[in-house]
Design a protein that fits this description.
295 residues, alpha/beta, Rossmann fold, 8-stranded mixed sheet, 8 strands, disordered N terminus
């Protein structure tokens, strides 16, 4: 695809809100209309699709790609005041697929979105109201058990407290950027708040800000309880081709994705010199692996 042709996919082909759910979900669609479909599930929970852009639009070169803001985040925040659970997200995805006629269904899940894809696929095996995915692409999926999640939280906290990140924070505080450019200061402060996700914290630059609704994040994780998708047999219900991509330096334990891939019989691709943000850190290797799998 030429540069001019690719610039066209940076513009959403269509946008809208769902009309069949009690909580309208905001969605956008990119790429050629006649191409095979992909549904991208963003991380969080409680975040939105914007922080994956524009890098993840690489998928729209050859595919009809749909992004949506999950319940409680982004433009899908209205109309729900109570707790939001993982089951709400699974049901929402099923309704979205039906309303927008997204079968055959290929799910591309990043971080929490990878875990959501697994939960949805497992539930669809037992619920005929949910369209079963025919393929899964899991990009640095969130931990598949509470034990792995605890390991991740400890490692991320350790990285954020490192001398390197502390030095970058001190440099920002001394820069005077807050007075000269408040917007630039907020962007840089955000980048430093996620620097521990990167193999090299100094690479946390030029990121689309991520806003997570803390109430939603906490509610969804609480609803999972002491979860373990291998031990409770949920991964054993999934019988479709899957790709798992994991950055070797991701604070999420590589062992989590290894166990996930083994349970699914999936292809596992480990990206060196890469943390939790491969679409920024190793985009060529990431999208090559996805393209080869989808082909």
């Amino acid at each position: 695809m030429t540069s001019r042709a690719f610039s066209a996919v940076l513009q959403a082909r269509a946008t809208g809100f769902t009309v069949t759910l009690p909580v309208p979900l905001y969605w956008t669609r990119y790429g050629p209309r006649e191409a095979s479909r992909l549904v991208v599930l963003h991380g969080g929970p409680g975040a939105d699709q914007e922080y994956l852009l524009p890098q993840m639009l690489e998928l729209a070169r050859d595919h009809d790609v749909l992004f949506y803001d999950q319940r409680g985040g982004g433009r899908s925040r209205g109309g729900h005041e109570g707790p939001i659970t993982w089951r709400d997200h699974v049901a929402d995805l099923g309704a979205l697929v039906r309303e927008l006629d997204l079968e055959p269904l290929t799910l591309v899940g990043y971080s929490w979105g990878g875990l959501l894809a697994l939960l949805y696929a497992a539930e669809s095996a037992a619920d005929p109201a949910l369209a079963s995915p025919v393929r899964l692409v899991l990009i640095d999926p969130a931990p598949i058990s509470r034990q792995y999640r605890n390991q991740f939280e400890a490692e991320f906290a350790r990285r954020q407290a490192s001398a390197q990140v502390a030095g970058m924070r001190a440099a920002l505080a001394a820069s005077g950027l807050g007075e000269r450019d408040p917007t630039g200061y907020r962007r840089r402060a955000f980048e430093l708040s996620v620097a521990g996700y990167f193999a090299d914290p100094g690479a946390a630059h030029d990121l689309s800000p991520l806003r997570v609704m803390e109430r939603v994040r906490r509610s969804v994780w609480d609803s999972l309880g002491d979860y373990d998708l291998v031990r409770d047999g949920r991964l054993g219900r999934i019988h479709c081709p899957a790709l798992v991509v994991h950055g070797r330096q991701d604070p999420i334990p590589l062992a989590s994705s290894e166990a996930c891939a083994a349970a699914l019989g999936a292809t596992l691709v480990v990206l060196d010199a890469c943390g939790h943000v491969p679409y920024v850190e190793q985009p060529i290797a990431l999208f090559r692996a996805i393209s080869e799998f989808l082909a």
